[in-house]
Structures are given as C-alpha cells and as structure tokens.
Write a structure and sequence with these properties.
Layout lengths: L1 H26 L10 H57 L4 H60 L3 H7 L1
C-alpha cells in the first residue's frame, strides 16, 4: 500500500514539474512576431513609457521629500533632547515640595514626551519615504526591462533575416 502511494506521489510530482516547465517556456515566448503586430507593440511601448514617466515623477517627489524629512527628524530630535533637559531641571526644582513647581515639572515632562514622540514619528516618516523610493526604483527597473524586451521584439520583426544571416556565417 505504501509503495502504491509513493508511486502516485512520484507521478503527481513529475506531472507538476513538467507543467511548470511548459508554463515557464510559454511565458518567455515572444509576444509580437509579425509586422502586423507592430501597432499593438507600439501601443504597449507607449503605455509602458508613460508609466515610467509617471513613476519618475513620483520618484522625484519622494526624493524631494527626503531632505524635508531628514531636517525634520534632526530638528525634532534636538527639540526632544532640549525639552527633556528642561523637564529634568524643572523636576529637580520641584523636589523641594512647591506645588506650582511640581505642576510645571509635570507639564514639562508631558512636553518632553510629546517631543520624543514627534522625533520618533519623523524618523518613521523618513524610513517610510526611503522604502517608497526603493519600491519606485524597483518598479522603474521592471518597466525598463519590459521596454527592452519590446525593443528586442521590434528589432526581430523589423529585421527578420538577421538571425538567418548570423547562422549562415
């Protein structure tokens, strides 16, 4: 019984592997092959070029934000440190027992906590911005590869004799 299940398993795995190879080879096939396909190729080429232009615009916007986020995170970090020091100074004064000083120390502590949270958020914004830039760069590279593939297909359509000439040499 175990041998029969093992044989079935091997057959199923073999069929799946063969199917995967067929699927991979069919997806790598040239999409546009004849001169009549050039209109479709040109339309897709134009669409991908437009997508790249839009992605480049978004990339520039995000890159321009990077400097703002960097300066914001630096300034909020400085403010957090100075606010924390003010809070410590006020707390040391408040230990003498004056109620007004204690309330002021509590207010300064809350302010320092808020500044620290602002600094943390600014760093988070800067990190998210870097991730967006990396994602946009990856999308642009992917679209550029698609354009390169379309260029190759266009060259093969426009110069169908070239591969035969190369093999004759």
């Amino acid at each position: 019984m175990l041998m029969l299940n093992l044989k079935r398993f091997k057959v199923v795995v073999f069929v799946q592997v063969c199917s995967a190879f067929i699927l991979i080879s069919s997806t790598k096939a040239q999409k546009y092959k004849t001169f009549a396909d050039t209109a479709k190729l040109n339309k897709e080429y134009g669409q991908i070029s437009l997508d790249i232009a839009k992605l480049n615009t978004k990339l520039l916007e995000e890159q321009n934000k990077t400097a703002d986020f960097h300066s914001k995170s630096a300034s909020t970090a400085k403010e957090a440190v100075s606010s924390e020091q003010d809070s410590k100074d006020q707390a040391s004064i408040a230990t003498d027992g004056n109620t007004t000083d204690t309330k002021k120390a509590l207010k300064d502590a809350k302010k320092a906590d808020q500044k620290a949270n602002d600094a943390k958020n600014a760093i988070s914004d800067e990190t998210n911005n870097s991730k967006k830039i990396d994602k946009l760069n990856a999308q642009i590279v992917k679209k550029q590869k698609q354009l390169d593939d379309l260029d190759k297909q266009r060259a093969e359509i426009m110069n169908p004799l070239r591969p035969a000439e190369e093999t004759a040499k």
